[in-house]
Amino acid sequence: xxxxxxxxxxxxxxxxxxxxxxxxxxxxxxxxxxLKYMSHKQILAIVGLRRVGxxxxxxxxxxxxxxxxxxxxxxxxxxxxxxxxxxxxxLINYFLEFSDKxxxxxLFLDEIQKLPSWPDLIKTIYDTExxxxxxxxxxxxxxxxxxxxxxxxxxxxxxxxxxTFTEYLRYYTMPHTLTSNNIIHEYDVTxxxxxxxxxxxxxxxxxxxxxPELLDVDIQEKDFIKKYIKESIIxxxxxxxxxxxxxxxxxxxxxxxxxxxxxxxxxxxxxxxxILTVNRNRVSRCISxxxxxxxxxxTYNFTxxxxxxVRANKKQYAAHSCIVITLLDYPFEAVDTELAGHxxxxxxxxxxxxxxxWRTPQKDEVDIVVKxxxxxxxxxxxxxQITSDDVKTLLKFxxxxxxxxxxxxTKTTLEKKTIDGVDILFIPAWFFLxxxxxxxxV
Length: 442
Hints:
- It contains 18 helices and 14 strands.
- By secondary structure, it is α/β, with parallel strands linked by helices.
- It folds into 2 domains: 3-159, Rossmann fold, CATH 3.40.50.300; 165-440, no CATH class.
- Strands 9-10-11-12-14-13 form a 6-stranded mixed beta sheet, with helices on both faces.
- A hairpin with a 5-residue loop joins strand 9 and strand 10.
- The chain is globular.
- The relative contact order is 0.09.
């Protein structure tokens, strides 16, 4: 192995020379979850959209390790010199030779998808080396999905999402957790006095809250925020998709723009194919790739028939509202317009698990249906005035599916009402995100 490669690896591992590493003190929620699995043999794979903090979380895990420094190795495959199989193999063998084989060793592999044939190398190390724990990261699940069979039983996958609103509040040292199920009383005691501050932070979250590196950026730096999101996240993620799949970057980019322009609304593959003048199967494939790259989320019509779900129109949402605002070059003031309802719906859909929607041939529609032990309909009415018309469709749904509870997400209203035997919680969007985190046990 060349000296320059060894020196570059040493630079990536300053603890070998007893040098201190300065990292952000802010930790993502996933950090604690990963710590629980550090003692298990299985490989830990951290996947997620670009710039959500995968590298930082790996280095924070390194700082928590109470082992010999020579038993920790970090390799970033962002460095083009390391993006060949033989060099990667040499680097890892170099570390394995000087580390203590009789105690646990930790191998951190960052941006693993940039290394050709990486699963074969990882499988060999995992199967032949004792006392080795491998933690790796990737900016897309594309490669992981393709190679899951190769690493079956050897790998546990964790998605690091964009920043949640509760994490965003935690960064700004605002109360962000609920401690009881009596949420209205807790709101009155803990949150009501600062509701204007929460509403202000929620608006900034909509325009820049997805990515840790933007936390300290002033909301007035609009050009920088948009440039960062467009160039560092959207464009690079699409380049990654094209590189892995050999798909045309321009087709993927234009498709994503079209979808973002109709976020939180129904879409038809045929219409998109006609606009892009490409085959409908190709459009369907590109949508799937955008999903796997964590840029897009698709929801299906709520029905017991899987076949009907696949055939029926679907709704789509970008990973975060700030991506839509950037991609379509909306002014930040858009969060105070009618568009905000669609943006907020996207935030909610990306927060809840097992989300669907409900739409009838008569065009009755419920924005979100959460499928779990109980069916829970959620309507997004991001407005200050709520009328009886705003709950009509929700009540129809509850009657048809015998639901006793529903939620209406509002801009400012917080109250509980029983209407036609259905208990409806009216809750501001920002407070809903805290409430939902409490429900999930986050």
